[in-house]
Amino acid sequence: MQASSFRDCQAWRAEGLALSSSSNEACRLYDAILTQYVKWRNDETLGGFAGCFSAMHAADPNFVMGHVITTGLELVATTSSTRLDKRLASAVKRTVELANSQDISPREKLHVQAMELFSRGDFPRACDVWEDILVDHPTDMLALKFAHDALFYMGAQVPMRDSVARVLPHWKPHMPLSSYLKGMYSFGLMETRFYDQAEKVAMEGLALTPDDGWAVHSVAHVCEMRAEMDKGLKFMESREKDWQVCDILASHNYWHWALYYIEKGQYEAALQIYDSEVFRRCKATGSMLDTVDATSMLYRLEMEGVGVKERWRELLQVTQPHTDDHVTVFNDLHFLMASLGAADAGVSARLVDGLQELAKEPGENQQHQLAGRVGVFMCEAMTQYDRGDYGRAVELLYPLRYRIVDIGGSDAQRDVFNQLLIHATLKSEDKHHQKLGRCLLAERDAVRPNSALTDRLMQKVRALHA
């Protein structure tokens, strides 16, 4: 696809989404970046994200929405914190200054405001601003995607679903990227347990756009939540050629594939995917999505009794540089998995101490507020479990179990903490905890019948407490 096929100044105006730039090239490159973001892929024919970023800034250095999209994408990637990364902080500042020095539209001003709020960790207010944009401009894909990501980071499942539902009637089939709304809406339906509808909508999206990696990913979730592992394996394999091109999401889709194997107790097959796809990509990209998937996978395997010690040490090389970031609690918990797994007590202590400090005076940073309510206690529970104090781990985790959703991520990603709580109850010497473990397994079986993993844990209960 060539940059010339993207929307120029006039095309954006015609759609009611005028951009304050007189450079057709800059407007086309903005569209090219947006398209890659929606498709979860670096399009090499365009020079990927990096190539488009520099070409767009060269075409119009003062293009406000150009700065909004490049800086915004870096922020939602959560790979660095404006608190520590001076370059990123100054990129936010420059965008705000450019916006204040130009006559830009009210919509563009709101975009700048939302990006700045997000950069300060005020995710809820940033989402409010993006949603305000969508009331007047329901086809503003950048506002929709940024809101989708930020709501996901807050575990705001119903708002994430409804954010897409509200704009759907305004999107027509001829509009660029319209088919991708199916995958986005499907994901919201899936996270709010409308599994049949989620699968139907995702498959409609895939009929229109077979290489929509996000729609594939939504179906992968449905199979996971219903414990339909064989169906999931078949589905992922049959469409691998299609979704593999989505390089930003590919590792995550392989992670889903590997989870089916873990569920079935086929650990070698899972480790093969970890080595050849998940860790390889995570090491190459440093992407947060790839990194948390790698840590979560090893943590699950370790709970299942699989030895992964050497792999933890390799993975710590990727997570350690992020020890002081504290952009999201979700990321922090996964970094802690790596430092505990690699038995690096110094890194673990530094991470938890840093989070505790920020939680004392969180200001408007929603993630640091959350750390004080949930994150710090979860870190402590993981640390106690690692030390073998399973009873204490249960006491810390059990009261939080319905608030863990607030750390964001998907039900499938957060399930690692449900499993941790169950393992802690089974290993605790407290008889009440052991009974609680049975209750949690009965509950798990009711929500996700025919799960091989649940069956294995139930057998463990019978063997342990016969």
Automatic annotation (TrEMBL):
<dbReference type="InterPro" id="IPR011990">
    <property type="entry name" value="TPR-like_helical_dom_sf"/>
</dbReference>
<keyword id="KW-0802">TPR repeat</keyword>
<keyword id="KW-0677">Repeat</keyword>
<dbReference type="InterPro" id="IPR033891">
    <property type="entry name" value="TTC38"/>
</dbReference>
<comment type="similarity">
    <text>Belongs to the TTC38 family.</text>
</comment>
<protein>
    <recommendedName>
        <fullName>Tetratricopeptide repeat protein 38</fullName>
    </recommendedName>
</protein>
